[in-house]
Specification:
mainly alpha; 4 helices; 73% helix; Lambda_DNA-bd_dom_sf; XRE family transcriptional regulator; DNA binding
Length: 71
């Protein structure tokens, strides 16, 4: 995967999360509470494509909660 592809996927994920929150009338704070992490940890996982274990786990939980299956 090229660096540009990673950046593109990160942007798509961020948009899908934003749209999912809007559709559910949720805030990022609500999502952080639902996932069981702080807002800062959630923000890092959503706004960057960090490859550390915690960010991957948070993104997996977000995908499950917001039913994001294709990213």
């Amino acid at each position: 995967m090229t660096e540009q592809m990673i950046v593109d996927v990160a942007k798509m994920f961020k948009k899908r999360v934003k749209d999912g929150l809007f559709d559910r009338d949720m805030t990022q704070r609500d999502l952080a509470n639902a996932v069981g992490v702080t807002e800062a940890v959630l923000s890092l996982a959503i706004n960057t494509y960090a490859i550390n274990k915690q960010s991957r786990e948070v993104r997996a939980k977000v995908r499950q909660l917001l039913d994001i299956q294709d990213i």
